[in-house]
Amino acid sequence: MREYAIVLLYSHYNRYSVNALCGVIDENNLYDVYLVNDLVDIINLIPYFVNKYKRVIVGISFSTYNLVDDVFLKNIKLINSLEKRYRGRILSVAGGPHPSGDPIGSLYSLGFSVVVIGEGEEAFPELANSYFIKGFDGLESVRGIMYMVSGEPVFTGRRRLVELDKYPPFPYWRNIFGPIEITRGCPNGCYYCQVSYLHGFYQRNRSVDNIVMYARIMAAKGYRDIRFITPNGLGYGMKTYSREPKLDKLLELLDSLYKDVVVKYNARIFYGTFPSEVRPEHLTEEAAGILKKYVVNKNIIIGAQSGSERILKFIRRGHSVEDVLNAVDNAIKTGFIPDVDFILGFPFEEDTDYEDTLNTMKVLAEKGARIHLHYFMPLPGSPYSFLEPKEIPEWVRREIYKLLGKGRVYGQWMQQEEVSKKIVYLRKKGVIMPSLFKERIYSG
Length: 444
Prior knowledge:
Blueprint: E1 4-9, H1 15-28, E2 32-36, H2 39-52, E3 55-61, H3 64-67, H4 70-85, E4 90-95, H5 97-101, H6 103-108, E5 114-116, H7 123-134, E6 145-149, E7 152-155, E8 180-181, E9 183-184, H8 195-199, E10 204-205, H9 208-220, E11 225-226, E12 228-229, H10 247-265, E13 268-269, H11 285-294, E14 299-305, H12 309-314, H13 321-334, E15 337-344, H14 351-367, E16 370-375, H15 394-405, E17 409-410, H16 413-428, H17 438-443
Parallel strand pairs: 1-2, 1-3, 3-4, 4-5, 8-12, 11-13, 14-15, 15-16, 16-17
Antiparallel strand pairs: 5-6, 6-7, 9-10
């Protein structure tokens, strides 16, 4: 039995990020690592872990969406109160999209001892090594984290960006698999989105050989559906801060997967669909044709976000409404069913913007597209984290319901409305405090 242990919350809403983190910790093979599916189970197991190990780290990765759940919030605070009871034996560590965007609130209001800001593959193992050997005093040498000293937050500075090829996307030796993360970071920097501001504007690509290796391992174990994580499916292979797609690299990736995994293991490639999407200006007829040759998904997700040119400029999307129309035409022409993402409720959205967006939706629906509707959420870590959503006018809702009745609209936009209101409420109550770390967000 080892002297130290790491306990990670492993649930349906954080498993992709924990897969990557667990892969790194397991490979180090220094500590006992437990994946626990529920916060209540962690609470109940804490006395057992304290009795069995000298020191224990409880790591919880979560998004702002999770935080609006009153039960989740209550259990988070309970875990952190138990840490105070076993001071020196347990260290609570927060990571993931919300703590990275709101480290101050995660420390002050939620009660975590440490927040890992941004990517955890290097920061978290270093944190664990330092804490287990030196205790809390060892944290000052670990870059990429924030913690409290005498009631004041201490940020240890940024870490270098992670090279994806150095780390596995999932701990396959545990027989745990998932989508393969093929890129990280995004050069576009949309103002409503966290990705560029938490992972950088510099896009990093996992190499073709590395992707194929993990897809082969996955397929050989009997997991035949191969999916991928990327902010922009057609952006694979883009270099540094470029926004120009590299279709030759995409073709190389898909062709290699086909020859080495699909043919040999009877696997299936899903690309340009959940959990990723494609940017409309990149979905040319050529790009759609490349995808159609290799993938089995019938649908393709296109990120439009608005049908108003004014809103597209405000949110820094970097494409036009015409790009969206052309992408849908190219998808349909190639045999795909386009699912087009739209966001309503931007704080500065006016009636004319709604009219433009509704008209665009109707045109797309007539072409055969489905509208995947979302509602604006002020996510910590994004430049719009300090804004409030705007109520959707009733006349707009009526038009949406008409499309809904025709089967052309789907999505959880009504649930997201409630989530967005709760985020604003938690911010006003001081549970979420993104503005106190504003400089870090904009320094990007």
